[in-house]
Amino acid sequence: MSSVDEIEDFYGVYLLVSKSPNPKFAGRTYIGYTVDPNRRIKQHNRGEDAGGARRTSNRGPWTMVLIVHGFPNNISALRFEWAWQQPRVSRRLKQIPELQKKLRKESNFEYNFRILTEMLRIGPWNRLPLVIRWFADEFHREFEVGKKPPLHMPICFGRMKKIKRKQKKTNPVTGERAAKEQRVSNRARKSSKVAINYDFDEYDLLVMGGEKIDDDSNPATKEQPLTLPVTDESVVISSDSESDNNDADGSQSTATDCTLCNRWMDLEEMEGQGDLILRCLQPRCPLVCHLECLAERVLAPGQYVPVEGDCPVCEGHFLWGDIIRKANGCCDLVDDAENVDPLEVDDVSDDEEKCS
Predict the structure, then answer these.
(1) Around Cβ 187, how many Cβ atoms within 10 Å?
(2) For residue range 319-330, what is the model confidence (pLDDT) as tens digits?
(3) How do residues 291-327 score in pLDDT, each as one tens digit?
(4) Which CA distances in Å does 292 have to 39, 277, 304?
(5) Is 296 exposed, middle or buried (0-12, 13-18, 19+ CB in 10 A)?
(6) What does the pLDDT read at residue 218?
(7) Displacement of CA 336 from its chain's centroid (Å)
(8) What's the CA gap between 164 and 333, in Å, rounded?
């Protein structure tokens, strides 16, 4: 059996259901955020001292019923978690009257699932490349007709394990060269970034993984490499990743021309500055381009962050979130064929509980 390595940039929001023998706690639910569902369910069942939540401590055992993942960053996932927990307070959900109270004879799980069905169909979440994954067959529910998630959101079943992203080897540079590259890159960024202007909803912007650019610095007094001379309503789509990855199918050269605008791209310098280099999801497609260039090609009217599109080179269809994940060097989660049982409390053995 091969070891299981970690995957970076995984953000998920999960739903737990208590199977406590105590009728007072049985059937209770808990909504939480995690970057590692396998570790998190163990923490919940071991108790607060082992890293579990106070609300779940000594009220289990708990079953992780489902998880929603594919968020572009932790902020997006945490805001989804909060709205799911607070449908009466969330300004997105409090406008939906039927979500304001649990129906008679409706279980806590059924109520939370009903909230989820609405959340996946409204903005900004209906534009994200989310995945709905069921862990426990006994709790599985079909989405009602007319309340199914958008077609680009797959519904999956079974456990997951994490795989490690590939790290690109880079050559060290001297301090003088690094300083020179920094100055050149700052000038290039100011001339190459494409501002996306719109009347935006800042909440939508955070959820979709965008970044508002503040233009209140004075270039005469200090240099701000990440500040662009654009309007207050301009947006540059960004990533939380600290390092980007060139896949094995990409070019080994450190420089190339953008496939779409033909401008020079120093790949090593762009990676050092945190600029995303976009490539097609198809392994044999030669597309290499700036984020802004591809975004302009696939941006639909009324959108400020693309949802999906077709590759300008090979015409292969893609979800924008998948393109960004690849640019971040993020491998996708894979089904765990070696452990087919759902993520239940069996993951926590008696020995593990004693050790906690």
Answers:
(1) 10
(2) 888 888 788 776
(3) 989 988 888 877 777 888 899 999 888 888 888 878 8
(4) 37, 10, 11
(5) middle
(6) 41
(7) 20
(8) 10
Lowest mean pLDDT: which of 8-17, 153-162, 266-275, 337-346? 337-346
The structure tokens listed for 314 are 């090979």
27: left (phi over 0), alpha (psi -120 to 50) or beta: left
Query: Which pLDDT does position 350 carry in this prediction?
Result: 31
Distance CA 86, CA 69 (A): 19
* Burial letters 9-45, b for 16+ CB under 10 A, else e: bbbbbbbbbbebeeeeeeebbbbbbbbebbebbbbbb
pTM of the model: 0.58
Task: Specify the 3-state DSSP secondary structure of 32.
Answer: strand
Query: Domains in the chain, please, with CATH?
Result: 5-162 (no CATH), 255-328 (3.30.40.10)
H or E, element range at 6? none
Separation CA 155–CA 133 (nearest Å): 6
Give residue 16's pLDDT band: very low, low, confident or very high (50, 70, 90). very high
Alpha-carbon distance of 77 to 308, in angstroms, equals: 20
Closest alpha carbon to 192 in 310, 277, 281:
277
Query: Tens of pLDDT along 220-264?
Result: 433 333 333 333 333 332 333 333 343 434 444 678 899 999 888
Cα separation, 30 vs 304, in Å, equals 33
Alpha helices in the chain (DSSP H): 37-46, 74-85, 108-119, 175-192, 202-208, 267-273, 291-298, 320-327, 350-355
- The whole-angstrom separation of Cα 262 and Cα 12 is 38
